Amino acid sequence: DSNDDIEDVSLFDAxxxxxxxxxxxxxxxxxxxxxxLFFRVSAIAVYLLCELLTSSFIACMVTIILLLSCDFxxxxxxxxxxxxxxxxxxxxxxxGRSHWVFEARKVSAQGSKTSSEAESRIFWLGLIxxxxxxxxxxxxxxxxxxxxxLAVVVMGVVLQGAxxxxxxxxxVGSRKNLTSMATSYLGRQFLRQVxxxxxxxxx
Length: 203
Prior knowledge:
two-stranded antiparallel ribbon; 2 strands; 7% strand; Golgi apparatus membrane protein TVP23 homolog; membrane; TVP23-like; transmembrane; transmembrane helix
């Protein structure tokens, strides 16, 4: 039911050619790489230090939510496209139906069009690590009965988890592709068991 445009892109681009590898090891978008980590790391730092800096819960909550919102927008619209050639969004067709679109830029033979290995590592490290930290914060707030912080932590999990899910879908493929791959795998295993019925029996 969804119109997913999927192309292949490498998580950690590496080339056998030494000259291209030297180009890929450089950070081609330093500003994007900086802001890819700045907002999400700042939100975590404010969450950890806010009780030491101020006694106002409202000020801390608003600051963290603003940082998380800026991070969500920057990662979804800017850094993913520049650093790894991935993007995802939602569009509504003429019939009013909502469609999620996941795109991945093909690796080009031109070095100027490919993502650098350093940027890919920065992008995926920040994208995966920070949601995990917010999940840890969620369990910590839950078990320590910090109910007032639970809403802020859940916001962090949702916003950063949404970007993580979207970019994984861009890299791995659409749900339809995953379903067909699983069906094909199970079909091969079934045919293998039919051809060799004693293969799966324990020795």
